[in-house]
Amino acid sequence: MPRAAAGCRFAHRPELVVFAIDVDEEMRAEAVPGWSRFDAVAHALATFVTAKKRLDCNHQFALATLKDRAELVPDSVTGSPDALLARLRALAPAGRYPSFDLASVPAAVEDLRRRAHRSGRLLRVLLVYGRSNCIPSAGPAAAAAAQQGAAAFGGRGLAVDCVYVHDKPAPSVNRPQEVYSALEDAVDALAVAAGHSAYVFETSGGNVKKLLTLMSMLLAHPMQRQLPQARLPPAVDLAAAPLQPLPSERAAAAAAAAAAAAAARPPPSPSPPVGAAAASVDAAATDPAAAARAPAPPSPRAARPASAGGALPPLQRLSRMDSGGGSSSHPIADLLHLDDGEVDSEEPGAAALGSGGNPGVTR
């Protein structure tokens, strides 16, 4: 069982690709010298299978033919590109089919759908249609069959892509545009009912390069595509949506909000004008009475912190020694906050020593 068999919904889940190829007589028309239109389609499918197996070796392939109905080629399911190409070479256009029932495609691959579900693969049908005058018929039966299959297999449904190879348009000769429109409507109905975003491509029968390009565009896993339009969220009604303000309107609204916020703030406390303060200073300088009435500035001494026992004692400034070597007060007494009498009373021997004990030593 492949690695994605446990119901994994990731994009690397292997596929079972069914190539449903038109075998109408119109596919015998020459595409390029030496190649018919059917040969060009077979070459493009061979390129597709080889590249697809390099992406994931668990991919499998099968063949179906489009006559008046879709018919599965017996025992065509294989994982080998060589075996598939051998069965493809055994096919050939045979006869003309004036009608084609597109609703027969889901019924033709019903058994393969069950097989892919059991093996954990995703079933995808690649429809190659090549008639320029036969408009395929597909009514509600095709969508109902796809919807029934989607409900029976957990919503996986049937993924269908289409490549339309046609003659160049010629009035009153062929109707490729009508055929393409019918294919597009029918394939979209099948895909939307199964939750698949279908690719419907077209190219003229002689443009082999474009045919190869379209096949390369189908290589990617269908689960990597966008959801179909029916599964997308509804579009926004621009008429009912509110109008967005212009940049100038947004700027005006921001300025109005700033002005309202400024008006809501309380006004600042008034301060005396600078001219009045200067006039009061000049009046104090010229009028001594006004200066006396003015309150004295606070003393720096009053701002000193108090100690635990009360206010700190005032600091005394040391007096400078006069020119004669004496001083107006004792330096140590100034430091100790004592006067000269207290020093003399505490040191009685100092005066006696200075007066008669040692005449050469003076205090």
From TrEMBL:
Keyword Membrane (UniProt): no
Locations listed in the record: Cytoplasm; Nucleus
Region of interest (Disordered), ranges: 286-363
Alphabetical keyword list: Cell cycle, Cell division, Chromatin regulator, Cytoplasm, DNA damage, DNA repair, Mitosis, Nucleus, Ubl conjugation pathway
Biased composition (Gly residues): 354-363
A cellular component term, taken from the record's GO annotations: BRISC complex
SUPFAM superfamilies per UniProt: vWA-like
GO biological process: cell division; chromatin organization; DNA repair; positive regulation of DNA repair
Major site of localization recorded for this protein: cytoplasm
Biased composition (Low complexity): 301-311
Highest taxon above the source species: Eukaryota
Classification via PANTHER family: BRISC AND BRCA1-A COMPLEX MEMBER 1
Similarity section: Belongs to the BABAM1 family.
Name this protein carries in UniProt: BRISC and BRCA1-A complex member 1
